[in-house]
Structure to design on (902 residues):
């Protein structure tokens, strides 16, 4: 049943019960009370009548006794008899069912008869025997006693009746009270039953609903309410269950879809990461390729350049050796010839005209004077050629592919020597000043050729910059400062700084990228610093910094550990010959 | 959830308190009303009757006749008392007195003298009712001395040297009253009468007179009248020579050991006896009436006087 109906019905029942109970009990009580009151009044009247009757009886008896004693036949005994009868009738009307009335009447008849007899005997013989008199008295007393006994019974019964009536009244009152209590209990019971039959299931259902809601809220979508109260709440529960069902369907759909989405997303992510990886791989491959290309170019260059340089050096070395080796002999010979000429002049003081003319023409004195100088100069030139060749060989180090302990300063010096030509001042340009600030360095374990190449790259770049500055901006005091120092007895640092134009941040960021160059096409490959970086960082576990600001020059800082770790050696195999400065190439 | 629970508990507690309050109010109300309407302890009228009422009866008439008279009385008493009634017919007056003294019977029909004798024998009894004489309308009766109608005896003095019958020595009317009357006149029956017999019952006494065995007989008026009414005696056959002053009647005594209300009930039953129920004493009664011990004072005095004189004579 619906809660509304339940409430309405139970409340109506409740109200009806109270109304019926209260009205009924009150009516019944009033009726009973009225009834009882009537009875009570009746009984009281009866008692009064009985008392009156007794009084009449007493008077009658007194009169009768007087009659017996004084033979008064004119007494009003008859009136008394009548009076008694009247009172008795009254009593009879009050108590129509009292059997005592008939008994009293019968008893009274004895009395009446006795009084008649007495009157008769009085009339017959006025002088009565004393014994007879006494007996008459006794008879009167006896009859009176009989009547009084019945009257007493009557009165007692009426008293009892009063008590009974009172008891009835009490009982009625008690019944009324019981009914009242019954109604109160019924009210309470109805309250309780309303509570237990309506409220409690309601509360339970609400609790269930709440539980269900919270269960749904926590995601238990398969939760179903089980409410069978056949009321609004059941409808609500059914709606709830339907809702939950729908929700479950939708949710599962969402789950399915989101699963699909997740799968898609995962696939996408995978794809992205694959692509990223591929890209990275591609990039790596590209970088590698670039490196390889650079290396290849370098290798190619170097193989050809190196071979050429080595060949040129070698080829030059031989003729220079001829020149250099024979100059001393030439000098000896020339000295000898000149001394011979001296002797000739001393012995032939006047030579022929032809000779004189020749002498004149030849300026023999000048030749004598100049020839040793020429020879000395030639010797110096040859020496220098030898040195250059030595430097070239030293630079290419074709014979030194392995890690060696070398003096860094030596490498720097040989590099500077190679670059000498570019540093010197020429008639149309000022030279570049090299400021060396060498500290005491231990021998460094390294690939000397590669390290020389880095010096070459950095220095030639510096020279390029300074030349550009000098030529373009009329720079007056181009300088390159080279500092070396030992740091913590572990590594050495070489700082090569120029006072050129410096470079922008943008350029600086791409500085070590392969094929990045600021030089005009055909002048640079963009590999120099890239290779330098590779050599320092990769092959020597060193560090290469660049400190530069536009207009404030550039400083490259090379840091190389004093001792190399062994494993890195093998990597260098391929560059045994290869790594060579492009500048060198350009230069040669 | 938690909050809900607590509120639920709260409401439940409230309900409980309300119920308790209701009940408490109801109880207190009840107590107070009961107090105000306190019923006085009911006057308990015990309806408990004696298991069986034992009634002793004097042998006044012949056994068959007595039985005939007892039967309707028994029925009436059993009906009105709602208890069983056993009549025991004694062989003679003495037996009744003995029974009363021994408490073997609860009630008895006795003559006035027997009542006094029983009291003297220590019986715990009290007078209950006595029959009212149909003719006099009074509870008392008179003793009488009868002679045959044709007898020449006119006065008591003429009884000297005649044959005389008393009923028996316990009979009030049949012995005590006539004897005392004779005594008063200075007549000593035992010495001055030719013959004195004691037939035992009024019937036998009158039988003896009728048969002419005796010249005069002592009896009482009610019995004599009854015999006439019943047609056993013809009125013209006898003549009353002497009538005694009124004497207290034979009576019904009841044991004091019976409960007071039972005694009262008995008395009421007898007072209510319907007319026509025969007097078991043989008289013609118009009913019963209340009687008290004081009513027997004359007999008591008479007996005392007689016994004194008897002693004197002896």
């Amino acid at each position: 049943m619906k809660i509304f109906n339940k409430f309405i019905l139970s409340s109506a029942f409740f109200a009806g019960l109270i109304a019926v109970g209260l009205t009924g009990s009150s009516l019944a009580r009033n009726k009973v009370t009225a009834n009882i009151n009537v009875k009570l009044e009746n009984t009281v009247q009866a008692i009064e009548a009985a008392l009156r009757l007794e009084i009449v009886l007493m008077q009658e008896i007194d009169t009768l006794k007087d009659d017996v004693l004084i033979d008064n036949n004119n007494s009003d005994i008859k009136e008394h008899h009548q009076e008694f009868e009247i009172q008795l009738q009254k009593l009879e009307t009050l108590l129509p069912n009292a059997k005592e009335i008939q008994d009293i009447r019968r008893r009274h008849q004895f009395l009446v008869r006795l009084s008649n007899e007495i009157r008769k005997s009085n009339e017959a013989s006025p002088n009565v025997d004393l014994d007879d008199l006494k007996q008459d008295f006794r008879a009167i007393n006896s009859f009176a006693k009989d009547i009084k006994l019945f009257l007493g019974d009557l009165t007692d019964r009426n008293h009892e009746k009063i008590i009974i009536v009172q008891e009835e009244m009490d009982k009625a009152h008690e019944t009324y009270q019981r009914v009242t209590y019954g109604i109160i209990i019924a009210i309470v019971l109805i309250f309780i039953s309303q509570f237990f039959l309506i409220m409690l299931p309601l509360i339970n259902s609400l609790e269930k609903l709440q539980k269900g809601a919270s269960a749904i809220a926590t995601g238990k979508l398969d939760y179903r309410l089980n409410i069978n109260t056949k009321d609004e709440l059941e409808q609500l529960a059914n709606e709830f269950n339907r809702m939950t069902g729908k929700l479950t369907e939708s949710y599962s759909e969402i789950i399915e879809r989101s699963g699909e989405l997740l799968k898609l997303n995962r696939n996408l992510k995978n794809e992205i990461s694959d692509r990223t990886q591929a890209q990275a791989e591609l990039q790596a491959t590209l970088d590698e390729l670039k490196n390889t290309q650079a290396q290849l170019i370098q290798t190619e260059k170097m193989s050809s350049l190196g071979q050429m340089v080595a060949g040129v050096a070698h080829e030059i070395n031989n003729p220079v050796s001829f020149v250099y080796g024979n100059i001393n002999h030439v000098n000896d010979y020339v000295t000898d010839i000149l001394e011979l000429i001296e002797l000739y002049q001393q012995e032939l003081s006047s030579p022929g005209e032809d000779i004189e003319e020749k002498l004149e023409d030849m300026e023999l004195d000048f030749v004598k004077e100049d020839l040793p100088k020429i020879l000395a100069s030639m010797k110096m030139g040859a020496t220098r050629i030898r040195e250059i060749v030595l430097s070239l060989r030293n630079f290419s180090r074709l014979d030194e592919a392995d890690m060696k302990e070398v003096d860094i300063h030596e490498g720097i010096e040989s590099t500077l020597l190679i670059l000498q030509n570019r540093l010197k001042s020429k008639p149309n340009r000022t030279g570049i000043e090299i400021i060396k600030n060498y500290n005491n360095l231990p021998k460094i374990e390294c690939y000397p050729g590669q390290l020389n190449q880095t010096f070459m790259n950095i220095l030639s770049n510096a020279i390029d910059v300074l030349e550009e500055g000098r030529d373009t901006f009329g720079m007056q005091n181009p300088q390159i400062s080279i500092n070396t120092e030992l740091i913590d007895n572990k590594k050495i640092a070489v700082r090569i700084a120029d006072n050129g134009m410096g470079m922008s941040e943008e350029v600086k960021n791409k500085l070590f990228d392969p094929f990045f160059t600021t030089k005009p096409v055909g002048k640079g490959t963009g590999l120099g610093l890239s290779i330098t970086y590779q050599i320092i960082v990769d092959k020597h576990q060193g560090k290469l910094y660049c400190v530069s600001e536009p207009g404030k020059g550039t400083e490259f800082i090379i840091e190389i550990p004093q001792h190399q770790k062994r494993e890195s050696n093998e990597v260098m195999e391929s560059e045994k010959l290869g790594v060579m400065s492009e500048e060198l190439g350009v230069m040669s | 959830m938690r909050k809900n629970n607590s509120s639920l508990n709260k409401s439940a507690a409230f309900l409980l308190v309300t119920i308790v309050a209701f009940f408490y109010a109801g109880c207190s109300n009840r107590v107070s009303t009961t107090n105000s309407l306190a019923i006085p302890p009911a006057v308990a009228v015990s309806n408990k009757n004696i298991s069986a009422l034992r009634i002793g009866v004097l042998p006044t008439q012949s056994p068959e006749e007595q039985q005939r008279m007892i039967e309707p009385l028994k029925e009436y008493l059993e009906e009105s008392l709602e208890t069983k009634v056993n009549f025991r017919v004694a062989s003679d007056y003495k037996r009744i007195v003995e029974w009363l003294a021994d408490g073997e019977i609860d009630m008895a029909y006795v003559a006035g003298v027997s009542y006094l004798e029983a009291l003297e024998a220590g019986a715990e009894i009290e007078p209950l009712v006595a029959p009212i004489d149909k003719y006099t309308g009074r509870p008392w009766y008179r003793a009488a001395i009868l002679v045959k109608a044709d007898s020449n005896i006119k006065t008591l003095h003429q009884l000297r040297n005649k044959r005389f019958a008393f009923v028996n020595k316990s009979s009030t009317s049949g012995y005590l009253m006539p004897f005392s009357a004779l005594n008063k006149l200075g007549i000593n029956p035992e010495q001055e009468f030719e013959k004195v017999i004691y037939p035992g019952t009024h019937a036998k006494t009158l039988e003896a007179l009728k048969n002419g065995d005796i010249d005069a007989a002592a009896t009482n008026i009610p019995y004599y009248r009854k015999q006439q009414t019943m047609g056993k005696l013809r009125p013209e056959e006898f003549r009353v020579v002497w009538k005694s002053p009124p004497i207290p009647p034979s009576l019904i005594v009841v044991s004091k050991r019976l409960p007071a209300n039972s005694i009262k009930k008995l008395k009421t039953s007898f007072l209510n006896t319907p007319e026509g129920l025969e007097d078991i004493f043989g008289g013609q009664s118009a009913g019963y009436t209340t009687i008290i011990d004081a009513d027997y004072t004359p007999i008591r005095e008479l007996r005392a006087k007689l016994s004194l004189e008897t002693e004197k004579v002896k």
Remarks:
- Chain A has 13 helices and seven strands.
- Chain A has a mean pLDDT of 80.
